[in-house]
Amino acid sequence: RNFKQLFRLSVFSLSLRQIKNRSIVLKVLLITPPFTQMNTVYPATAYIKGFLNTLHIPSFQVDLSLEVLLKIFTSKSLRYIFDTLEQNETELSDNAFRIFTQRERYIHTIDIVISFLQDKNHAASISICGGNFLPKASRFDFVEDLDWAFGTMGTHDKAKHLATLYLEDLGDLFTEVVDENFGFSRYAESLGRTATHFDSLFQNILEEDSYIMATMKEILGSHLDRQNPDLVCISVPFPGNVFGAFKCGQLIKQNYPHIKVAFGGGYVNTELRSVYDARVFEFVDFITLDDGEAPLQHLIEYIANERSIDTLKRTFCRINGQVIFLNGSTSFDVPQKETGTPDYSDLNIDRYLSVIEVANPMHRLWSDGWWNKLTLAHGCYWGKCSFCDVTLDYIKRYEPLSAVLLCDRIEEIIVQTGRNGFHFVDEAAPPALMRDLSIEILRRGLIIIWWANIRFEKSFTPDLCRLLRQAGCIAISGGLEVASDRLLQKMKKGVSVAQVASVTKSFTDAGIMVHTYLMYGFPTQTVQETVDSLEMVRQMFDENIIQSGFWHLFAMTAHSPVGLKPEEFGVLHTGPVFGGFAENDYFHEDPEGADHEIFSQGLKTSLLNYMQGTGLDEALDIWFDFEIPKTTIAPNSIKKWLQIENNYEIRRTNILLWIGGAPIALTELKKRDKKSKHLTKTYVELEFSSLESNYTISLEEQVATWVVEMIEKLNTGQIIRVEDVILDFEVQTNEKWSSWLESHECKVLRMHGLLFV
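Structure (tokenized):
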């Protein structure tokens, strides 16, 4: 009987392996439609390709966002555009006419500028900074002396900034005379935003292709001919990608009707959860929700005739003219540890453009240089913010990866891309996982540069921030939102302004730059609170504990606590009426709050100045063209909070780390006992070498022995907790652990590399 049971189990295991390793003969093309970023790819296609690799399903990814930009910003394209304007005698604005009169200069410089921004033409920086190389239009009108930002030798970065302004001038021309929907990081965004009905999108899709859309279709067609896929998966992350996605679907349905088309991505997951307009499916066959791995695997199996349509997972399609939501699968989602390493192959990384839009070291990270994107944990470990989509899977299902697996994936991606810069794109990276990852990075001797999105919570102690910096962290971004304790509590942010100030100081002191997301217009926010929030932000810039920021107007969304129960937050839901397409952004009235939109320009102008180090001594009212009340915040509030010593508690569960070096010299000497003039004690003088200079400390022999032995253990990568060393320390040294922590010598060691995290 046992033999039969074992035999059955063996056969069952064999059949599972056969299913898992089965090779489905089907090819997938993964597409990012225009437009996202110029400097790096939006990572969705790389994530999906990595997962398909685990199933041995061949795929190819295309970043149409980049390929279209590189096609339209060429000398050939510009000459065509300028010739068309001249032949049609197009009426131009003053700025467009200014560009048109310099058309030959633009035509002769565009290819050089693009190659320079691709880091292929370093010598061009000298010409670009020379002042008589680039043609100039309105974007240069307010450019003053840039030495404050780039110094006298920062030629390359200064040239990047000037070349970016040059491209933005051309972008303004494109928007005016070529395609009103154009934007470098979005296309036809207004058509996708708050698109409750499909009517407007549908009509625009059916209209004649613009120059940019025609270019996109030409590029896509060449990829389709070359790859001959069975399924095209189009990632739609933002409203500014929606129209491009449908235009891709239109081309495929008209010219390649045998190819199936599927939509997924951030916009789909938040906006199209209730879609029922059948016209949508004239351009797409399937729309999948939430994490795409399992739904896509099911879809591929269905197309390969290995699964029935009723067992698809979280998938919309049209059957007999009706939109149907299919979710009959009994399979779970794919665990994050089994989704595979993101695969950036197929993308020619050297073709991406590094631009500097704002002369600010932190702000440039979003646009300057390629960043490998990676996620530390699925979802958000906090998951309570009342303005956030906490009811949706991408937020509410928290699933962290292990530090070991993350480092394995980091090493794989470095081999793939040849780049060691990483942006961890979590909703909020967990502090404990960031700690463990940093320890593993140091243990392996990995040299990487990285930045991440976080919450400003008290777990980010000065010691943890120093550890992160040692492991390669150069910057973090996090939500201060409204700098008002009342509103922070109302939005369940879980932080106070004083706490944010303390945490940002810890990051800054460790050499990590800080970007803050700022919000105005939260329900019931008053004029006074808006002014006071701006004053808090001004003081934080003045104290240099934040280096960059961005103001955005509160938006009430369908899947947030505010959107679900607006009456609990003092606002009224006023529409729009859902018409079968997108449902996410809600209109609302705020009877108790201010007229928030009038503050938009002033807040953004002040912030732009603060990021450049100007206007910090100016009164707040200079930023607005209407009267505002005086701030009620004391002018030195932030400074006072920062002067309070941050004596965070060292817990028994904390890990000891040493990021200094081993002692380079040990000298024994005798000293008189402080308590008894007739006794002498043996002391050991330890000399250490740091990056800045050498330093020495003198310790009693027993303590010195313990310190040297502990440093040797820590340098071998052992994980040692405080609770495991207290008794050992007290037995070996005959001293109290608490007294040692307060000693001058311990404080010196902590200053130079002894961390408790």
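The CA atoms of residues 706 and 728 lie 9 Å apart. The two ends are 55 Å apart (CA to CA).
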